[in-house]
Amino acid sequence: MNATAAKVVSPTAAVHPRGIGPVWVAAAVAFLLGSIVIGVAVGPIDLGLGGISSSLAERLRIPGSSSSLSATEESILWEIRMPRVVLAALVGGMLSLAGATYQGVFRNPLVDPYLLGVAAGAGLGATLAIAYLPDGLRGQQALPAAAFVGGAVAVFLTYSVGRSANRGRDTTTLVLAGVTVASFFTALQTFVQQQNADTLQQVYTWILGSIPSSGWTDVVLILPYVAIATVVILVYRRVVDVLSLGDDEAASLGVDVRRVRLTLVVAATVGTAAAVAVCGLIGFVGIIVPHAIRMLAGVGYRALLPLSVIVGAGFLVLADVIARTALAPAEIPLGIVTAFFGAPFFALVLRTSRGAA
Q1: Stated pTM of the model
Q2: To the nearest whole number, what is the mean pLDDT of the chain?
């Protein structure tokens, strides 16, 4: 990894991608912090910013501080709201980062993290777990594990099909292989659903996506995958700018295109599969956030990727606030909320891309 990155230090400097300006970093961090405050504060029980601040100060062991919240309010804050906000931030940041990475690697601004079949594979894995596992085994561990394995298998098959065409460096081949594998897995999922009609409600609830209120368990479950994937992608963020120029240009600048692309795709896929396994299929995040950053800041990938993590985290936290409060006490599936904002935005992106072409 380090050798490859070292080879392209000079070439990336020659590409002159626009870096991260301090103003945009400050704006992104302020957006995330504001989203977290809103996510923690908003709910059926008003904890108050003062109560939240005092509880946080006590947790941080600041001298002279004591929480003004009751024991029940403390439990609501630290066992329900805070883990849900953290989980939404992890998932949003990962999906946004993965989307931006795929867009750079495949040189297509309209792709998303589900391009290579991870969504279809995770959907099949979750459907199989819901349909065939005994009730006692469909819990918090088995369903995410089945979805994660399904997503990983789908992407592995996509790469295998792409390599069998002997065109390993052709991104179009991988995209077509992803469409093929996704169609096959979707067909299998539909068949399983037809054979187990009594599980349709559970399957569709998972597919529509949501942030579970399960305490810190899911945070701990996906944190290692998201952390490793994020670190790997950010280490290669300068190389993504070179890959966006095209395979031949990148190879001429000393980049091992096949190896770097595989590394980035595996990292993005592992992170996406972990996020999907816990929260279901949440669409459009990987398109909305990177494009919004491009339109506002006009930065290259070495700036776009870290900004996507921060802004994506804040975006999904706010989307989850809408999902759990808009029709309270009922909860809207999170995938519907992101689609409500994402579909018009995607149409705008299509129109803009068409005009640019």
Answers
A1: 0.89
A2: 86
